Amino acid sequence: xxxxxxxxxxxxxxxxxxxxxxxxxxxxxxxxxxxxxxxxxxxxxxxxxxxxxxxxxxxxxxxxxxxxxxxxxxxxxxxxxxxxxxxxxxxxxxxxxxxxxxxxxxxxxxxxxxxxxxxxxxxxxxxxxxxxxxxxxxxxxxxxxxxxxxxxxxxxxxxxxxxxxxxxxxxxxxxxxxxxxxxxxxxxxxxxxxxxxxxxxxxxxxxxxxxxxxxxxxx
Length: 219
Fold this sequence. Notes:
Elements: H1 8-16, H2 24-32, H3 44-56, E1 61-65, H4 71-77, E2 85-90, H5 93-105, E3 112-116, H6 119-130, E4 135-140, H7 147-157, E5 158-167, H8 183-197, E6 201-206, E7 212-217
Parallel strand pairs: 1-2, 1-4, 2-3, 4-5
Antiparallel strand pairs: 5-7, 6-7
C-alpha cells in the first residue's frame, strides 16, 4: 500500500507548499476553533483542492449543502469567474451570520447566497424554479442521515459531467468498524454503497481529510 502516514509535520509541510487562497481564511479558522463544534470545518488542504476543482471544471454555479461558518463556501467561491454564484443551504442562523461576515470580507458578497431551512426543501425549490441540470458542482457536507436524499436530488440539479463532492465518507475510519452501528455511520455506509453501484456516475473516493467522494455525473 503506497501511502504516506499523515503526521502533523507532514501535514504542515503539505499546507506550506500549496497556494494561499485568501488572507481572511486563517482568521476564520481561528475564530471557528473557539467553538465546541469546530471539527465541522473542512481542512485547509481540502479547501485548496476544492478551489482548484471549481476552476478546473469551469464551474459557474455551485450548490453547497451545509456551510457552517463559511470556510468551504469561501474556498469554492474564490474559484468562481465573474458572474458565478454559490448557493449554500444551512439551518443554523448563528453560523450563517459568521459565514456572511467572512464572505463579505473575502469579496464574495455578490456571488454568494445562504438559504436557511432544511436543505431537502431548499433543493426541491431550486429544482422547481431553476430546473434540472443547472449546477456545475455540488458539495454535500451536512447531516449524514440525509446524504442519500441530498445525492438523489443533487443528481437532478447537476449538469452532465458536473461533480458532486461528498465529505466525511471515511468518517474517521468508523465506516470499516463493524462495532459502530450508530445512525450516522450506517447512513454513510449506505450512501457509499449506493454511489459505488450507481451506473449514472463515475466516482473516486479520496483520502483527503475525513474522506471525500468525488462523483462525476455521466454525460
